[in-house]
Amino acid sequence: MHEFSYKGSDFFCEGIKVSDLALRFGTPLYVYSYKTLTDHFLKLQSAFREIDPLICFSVKANSNLSVLKALVDKGAGLDIVSGGELFRAKKAGCPLSKIVYASVGKTDKEIEDAVSSGILFFNVESLPELENINRIAGRLGKTVKVALRINPDVEAKTHKFITTGKITNKFGIDFKTAGGIIALRKRFRHALIAGLHIHIGSQITESGPFLAAIKKITVFISRLKDQGVPIEYLNIGGGLGIIYSRETPQTAAEFASKILPLLRNSGLKIIMEPGRFIVGSAGILVARVLYVKKTPLKKFVIVDGAMNDLIRPALYDAHHEIVPLHRSKRERQKVDIVGPICESGDFLAKGRFVQSVRAGEYIAVMSAGAYGFSMSSNYNSRPRAAEIMVRGKEVILIGRRETYDDLIDREEIAV
Ligand code: LLP
Questions:
Q1: Angstrom distance (rounded) from CA 112 to CA 168
Q2: Is the shortest distance between the CB of 238 and ligand 1 below 6 Å?
Q3: Residue 60 within a domain
């Protein structure tokens, strides 16, 4: 459920007419609904309340400070993957004891900063990384907690680019190797193995893959317990899918009802790292129609939003619903909706039946809250879009539009 809908002919975000925002702030424009964002977090929290997990929102899905702050204020922790995300997490006021840090390639500087800050734990992806964290923490006179990221070799049934839990992927450590590392744990006096972590992929719409992975890891944890290895935390990752088109993903309550029986009596402190589930349907990308171009074979609707604003269609052939901001009785037509960028891969939708639109009118690309702005770029020297948060009838500019000066700010002309 989300807070974007028509009232009469006009498309609204909560109490605000979206076309008024487009006129006031220009396009392309990201618009987020505060209620949708926080409701999704609260739904997940409430579905799992009997085990009281720490829900660490995955910053990579949407790293806007106001988005992070809204969730942190509701009790969320944050899942980070870089020094830049740690910087953002601190700026958003996230308690350090609620930050977990994943990534297969943490640099020494990133590790140093996170160790000095005192985050909850690192999700560790290899033996050399564990050795490095142990060395750096020792040098800084600290002891940190780590969770070994296990690669459970489970098929997540999602797009191959966002599958992460197969043994052919670069992520995590296989069970056998992990067992070997744990046997050596006394060597790592400054990096205590306190937990295990799994994350098998993203946009997973069935509970089967999650269940398979959690079953495998809980069996592994009981074996470790039998050997006298105490495991305090289990991080079950993110990956919950949302509706982009005709998917029928599980609700938070359905997901919890399947997963809880495996975790309820485990005695483990559970961490979750959802990104898309919380923010995906809480954001849209609004664009203005520049031209409608007919060719002998096709009709192209050329808009001012492009692959630099939302790369998911170009990168994953992802489907995002597209709706007009003003609904009319005009016929529906089959069109390609494309941006101005000089690549044939620059499209928002292909061969899509949408209400016929004219130059100057606006469209909204739905479910663009996750991996939308956070994956945007300046390709073709296009300034990044503005971002707005709507809260009831309140409108807050949470990210100003970049200027041309922003584009060249870092650069020097070498003579
Ligand atoms: N935890 C880890 C370790 C992750 O790698 C990810 C996402 C998450 C949590 C959050 O996953 P979520 O709940 O959002 O599915 N750019 C792609 C998605 C890449 C996901 C990367 N990792 C897309 O636009 O579909």
A1: 30
A2: yes
A3: yes
376 phi/psi in degrees, rounded to 5: -80, 160
Q: Is the CB of 61 under 6 A from ligand 1?
A: yes
Residue 413 lies in a domain: no
Helix axes 34-47, 252-263, angle to 10 degrees: 30
Domain of residue 140, CATH code? 3.20.20.10
Distance, CA of 163 to CA of 168 (rounded, Å) = 10
Instruction: Please give the structure tokens belonging to residue 377.
Output: 């770029």
Question: Does 165 sit in the ligand 1 pocket, CB within 6 Å?
Answer: no
Could you tell me if residue 365 is left (phi over 0), alpha (psi between -120 and 50 degrees) or otherwise beta? beta
28 pLDDT more than 80: yes
Give residue-wise pLDDT tens across range 297-340. Answer: 999 999 999 999 999 999 999 999 999 999 999 999 999 999 99
pLDDT single digits (tens) 336-386 = 999 999 999 999 999 999 999 999 999 999 999 999 999 999 999 999 999
Predicted confidence (pLDDT) per residue in 106-121, tens digit: 999 999 999 999 999 9
Residue 39 lies in domain = 34-276
Shared-domain flag, residues 266 and 302: no
Per the CB < 8 A criterion, the answer to whether 243 and 185 are in contact is no
**Residue having the nearest C-alpha atom to atom 8 of ligand 1:** 238
* 118 and 225 together in one domain: yes
Total domains in the fold of the chain: 2
What integer pLDDT is reported at residue 167 of this predicted model? 85
Q: 231, 251, 276: which is the final residue of a domain?
A: 276
Q: How far is the CA of 297 from the centre of ligand 1 (A)?
A: 37
pLDDT value, residue 415:
81
Among 276, 293, 326, give the residue marking a domain's end. Answer: 276
